[in-house]
Automatic annotation (TrEMBL):
This is Indoleamine 2,3-dioxygenase. GO terms for molecular function: heme binding; indoleamine 2,3-dioxygenase activity; metal ion binding. GO terms for biological process: 'de novo' NAD+ biosynthetic process from L-tryptophan; L-tryptophan catabolic process to kynurenine. PANTHER family: INDOLEAMINE 2,3-DIOXYGENASE. Residues 301-315 have a biased composition (Polar residues). One of its GO terms (cellular component) is cytoplasm. Heme b binds at H398.
Amino acid sequence: MSLKNLPVLTDYDISPVTGFLPAEEPLEVLPDAYFAPWEETFRHFNGLLLASRIRQRVQEVLPASLAVPWQKVADMLEIQPVLTHAAVVMWNWRLLYKDGPRDLNNLDTLATLSGSSDESWFYLVTTAIEATGAPVLEKILRSIQLVRNDDPTGLIQELHGIRGIIEELVAVLRRMFEKCDPYVFYWKVRPYLAGWENMAEAGLPNGVRYEGVDNGEYKKLAGGSAAQSSLIHALDIAFGVEHHPTGFRPKKNAAGHANGTVNGTVNGTANGTANGTANGTANGVAHGTPNGTANGIAGAKTTQPHNSYNDSSEMTAAKSPEKGTGSTSNNFIQKMRFYMPGPHRNFLTHLTEVANIRKFVTDKSSLKANGHGSAEIDQLITVFDECVHQIKVFRDVHIQMVTLYIVMQANRGPSISHGGFAPQAHAQRAEVNGVEKSAAKGEQPGPSSKGSSILYPQKIIFGAPHGLAKKQEEGNDVVRGTGGTDLIPFLRQSRDETNESKIVPTPTFARRKSSVA
Ligand code: HEM
């Protein structure tokens, strides 16, 4: 049987040097005069926001002048017309010194929404992660070839290199704490990343209407998230890390693969067995519709909001950002691929089809179990597990970060003394105290007292919930991610699934450490 050719990075718009980042610095502004109104609005964005005049320039309905070209560009890139990881991380950087490296000592952002250095740092740490991880792609492809050559010695060497790179990713990730203040991130930056899916409480029950696109129907598109990083997906695929819907833990067979039997229930709604087997890694995506991307959703009528990625009813054959991908794969993680540029998504599909490292190491491990072990097999298992362990450590640190940057901020609430000012919150507090001054004086409330320029859109201090991350139920803190996930259980499971992908599993000690919340 002839083997499928290995992917060639450049065929998928991936640079061997810069990975998923473009090899050239991204354009700072669009040169054509046609785009001048966009560029102009964006140049004045922070001023317009401060002066509470942004709504005079930007409506909630996306006008055709924006929606049509945006959709066209998105179609060309095979990405979604919404703020994405690609837009704010991969294509939003410049080098301070042109001959210097793509690292945190030499990167700046092209654009931010809040105008804060915290937001820049938030994006740039992730850009630096993409840059640091770039060499891992060729190493993964070489490893796959070494498996095909039945060359465990070469593979061991290559895996050592990969482990070193993942360690570096963790080191860069930890630098987030240096210059991105959790308070600023949560209250001032994150609202812009929210997208318009699951945003009923923020006043967008149907998403946003794109005038002139698909008969002006509403689109519900998820917010930007580094869960859209092709790099992390590539690592999962390479090492056979399988993700399942939250609360859905399939039994593994001897080779460590899911055999399709569901262990427990899915969010209390599904029980019994999952339809479709989860053989091999992320095969849900492999069978997705890489080219259907934008079209899948663009043509769809607005459907009922769905807030849960754990619901088995979503595990149907639907293949668009609005639905799951028809397997026991984690729907949220699979859905995030529709928010990647098409070539990168296609690369992941191709990679999935040729991934063989885990099977090779598992087979060697079986040899050992049957009394045919060797020092080389031991080394191979060890270094493979070390790579997986580093991915798990990455997720440990990430959970700590999410706890600090989201859960704790959501629980604490906004702080007026922190330098911010929430007009709507003040107006509501005034109501609570029975001192609605403007009403008492018979005056019309001024523009700042009715929330036209809320600087804390995530939560109104004394009022009804209004936002993204918040307590969903009294006494039960459920904080959701921009993608709508019940994020801590989702992230913990993702971490645990990584740990369980080791050939020789080790206990997940990190749970206590990472449960800061
Ligand atoms: C302050 C920093 C960060 C915060 C607050 C944060 C927040 C989140 C949240 C809330 C999710 C859940 C998905 C959702 O519902 O939106 C998520 C997922 C994810 N994030 Fe981050 N993130 C941060 C930094 C990063 C960085 C730098 C990376 C590096 C690429 C990253 C990679 C991921 C990945 C891969 C997932 C999917 C879950 C998984 O694979 O385990 N995040 N993040």
